[in-house]
Design brief:
This protein is mainly beta. The chain contains two helices and 14 strands.
């Protein structure tokens, strides 16, 4: 069943962008307990503009703008009922010119060389994250030096090939049950760029969103934080990127670590295992 259209009064910026507050997680006994989670989230800047981190009670939050248009927004074309340069709301029938999108902030994460912007003690700040020194020079790359994920045949729901786990993400949007307008606006976003909206608490919605990570290299294949360390010795790469789920949930088909489901043979009661894709 399609979602109920939001109760909009006109065309506006909400047709293409949605201001929200995202919950990152709860503070633990250590002041740096959320550094990895926050660094991971704030890395995904392709379709999200992040504001300043702030604390609400025992939770770390960040204000953000989700750059995903409404599924009911149609641009000027004969089939849409709008003239060239105009837009139309397929839910309410509003026709006209959309206001300009709000300006996108500069959100660098790779600052050049060993300098990166990462979250430390609940604040985004530049840090020098060196790679460990090698005792001997490497004359040529060996097979075990290649990141297998860079050649895995995984792809996101919009059919972008490669590094799917660095593009797909789960978000917790703060939205109380009484905020029916915001919930309708969230549920009306264009799939698959924002989809699988569910409510597991009275305070928030959980969604899946496509927004590539800015810590990827220029080829958008390898994580530039991989192998680097923070000044206190902790890995620079968020631990969420290295700890795979034991039950294989959340992995993309085509991922090197994904095992296809067992298929039962028809009429014989037996089963066979589908071949595993290997890059």
């Amino acid at each position: 069943m399609p979602p109920t259209p939001p109760p909009c009064a006109s065309l506006g910026r909400h047709c293409r962008e949605l201001p929200v507050t995202l919950r990152i997680g709860a503070f633990g006994p250590e002041p740096t307990s959320l550094d990895h989670e926050a660094t991971w989230l704030l890395g995904h800047t392709a379709q999200i503009d992040f504001g300043a981190l702030h604390r609400e009670g025992n939770d770390l939050m960040v204000d953000a703008v989700l750059r995903v248009k409404c599924r009911y927004l149609k641009h000027g074309a004969p089939a849409s009922g709008a003239a060239s340069g105009e837009s139309r709301c397929a839910a309410h029938g509003y026709v006209g010119a959309l206001p300009p999108e709000s300006a996108r902030p500069d959100q660098p994460r790779r600052l050049g060389g060993d300098q990166f912007a990462v979250v430390s003690a609940a604040a985004l700040a530049p840090a020098r994250l060196p790679l460990p020194p090698r005792s001997l020079p490497v004359l040529e790359t060996r097979d075990d030096d290649i990141n297998p994920c860079s050649i895995a045949p995984c792809k996101t729901a919009d059919h972008t090939l490669g590094s799917a786990c660095c593009r797909d993400m789960q978000l917790e949007i703060m939205c109380g049950q009484q905020d029916t307008t915001l919930e309708a606006l969230v549920r009306s976003r264009q799939s698959p760029y924002l989809c699988k909206v569910s409510r597991d608490s009275v305070r928030a919605l959980e969604v899946e969103m496509i927004s590539a990570c800015r810590y990827l290299d220029d080829e958008a294949e390898n994580c530039t934080l991989h192998g680097r360390t923070r000044p206190d010795g902790r890995p620079a790469k968020p631990d969420l990127c290295s700890h795979w789920p034991d039950d294989e949930k959340g992995l993309h088909p085509g991922c090197l670590w994904w095992t296809p489901p067992v298929r039962k043979k028809k009429g014989r009661g037996g089963s066979r295992k589908a071949p595993v894709q290997v890059a």
